Amino acid sequence: MALVVAGVLAVWLLRRAPEPPTPAWRVEVEDVTDADHARFESVTGATGRPQRVGDLLLATVVTSSAGRYLADMTGSVLVAVDPVTGEIVWQLPFAAPDERSVTRCAVTDAATIICVGAVDAGKGLEVLTVDPATGSILERLPAATRSPAAVVPLGDGVLVVTRFGDLAALGAGGDVRWEASAPGPVIGSPAIAQVGDAVLLEHDDERLLVAPDGTVRTASSRCEVTVVAGEVWACGDNRTTGYDAAGDRLWEVSGELVEGDPGAVTVHEAGLARAVDPVSGTEGPAVRLVDGEGSAAARQHVLPDAVVLTAETTGPDDPMTPLASTVTLLDPETHEAAWRRPLDDPGVLLAEVALVGDTVVVVGESVHGLDAATGVVRWERTAPALPGPVLAAADGVVVAGGSGALAGYRLLAG
């Protein structure tokens, strides 16, 4: 009888619903400001991962006159958070340059924070150099530019993309190194990435390549996705083309460019994925992501020394419900599948993936911890109400950030 009970208990333990992880910490917008309407936004104003400087995670809390997206901006607060403990190390408040803009900041290649915006209401725009360790303003000088939609690193200075479509390269001292004009106003958060010493700006249907000397070149107007890998970038639709930092074509291969993290190039065609050398265009072996029939889709996640592909297939009768979902890790040397793991989780395709220690953490509708070497599922948990994108941090903490909060989860306790 004891053996039977033990066996039943073992089966129950295996089949029971995953347990939720315990938040290690949570920072709400109310911890930063007492404004009635506030939200976390990108520090730079561009799309992408949260900004890191040293061991700190940077976030911006934007305050507005109402809870609507197009409400008048009233100010912002730059916040530095310890991603392991959730401690707010420092915060720096700003006024709103105007009712449609807030101060935007970027971390330069010298690990210095440069902000473009307003400290005092009605005093005009300034370029501010901020101490990353303390949040103190080291220098503030007038900025000869219009209100920023985004500020991104450009060498030892920053590139300011104004909401009117102007481009201006500013030095740390506020000097305008060059100015140029984009085709029109910037709507929302533009996708911006560095390619070598140049900046690639997604503007409407065009990709603008901005050189350090201010030369603006329309690099492509037909691709749907842009991926950066070192000094090479790729655009893809039914075919994928690689370009160098000057916008010159390097190679072209068949297959749709897999969307996702920058840092690698992977193409997908008829349920098969292939890694592509970003410099030569040499293709790796074809890797089947999901078995069976149906329409396949994939997404790329670039981890240290590896690329993980999340994939799913859907049928023609119900394209919203996955027939099968998998996680595949590509060997960094051979580009073959080191392992492929099916997961019974409809949120796998759009899952966030992070490497924490020797565990690949996949956050879909549930959270899965997979052995990085073998793909064996070590543990599963019910997914928390993650406030947004996930990134790996030190000491086994996975940090998520969204409009209402930042949160850190210790997901390796299981």
What is this structure's SSE topology?
Layout (H helix, E strand, L loop, with lengths): L1 H14 L7 E6 L9 E4 L9 E3 L2 E9 L8 E9 L6 E8 L8 E4 L5 E5 L8 E5 L6 E6 L5 E7 L2 E6 L3 E5 L5 E6 L10 E4 L2 E6 L2 E5 L5 E5 L4 E5 L2 E5 L2 E6 L4 E6 L1 E2 L7 E5 L2 E5 L10 E2 L6 E9 L2 E9 L7 E9 L6 E6 L9 E5 L2 E5 L2 E6 L5 E6 L7 E3 L4 E5 L3 E6 L4
Antiparallel strand pairs: 1-37, 2-4, 3-4, 4-5, 5-6, 7-8, 8-9, 9-10, 11-12, 12-13, 13-14, 15-16, 16-17, 17-18, 19-20, 20-21, 21-22, 23-24, 24-25, 25-26, 27-28, 28-29, 29-30, 31-32, 32-33, 33-34, 35-36, 36-37
Report the structural category: mainly beta
Q: Using DSSP, what is the number of strands?
A: 37
On the 0 to 100 scale, the average pLDDT is: 79
Main sheet specs: 5 strands, antiparallel
Report low-confidence residues grouped into runs of 5 or more.
Answer: 1-18
Helix share bin: under 10%
What share of residues are in beta strands? Answer: over 45%
Distance between the termini: 29 Å
Count of helices?
1
Shape verdict? globular
Radius of gyration: 23 Å
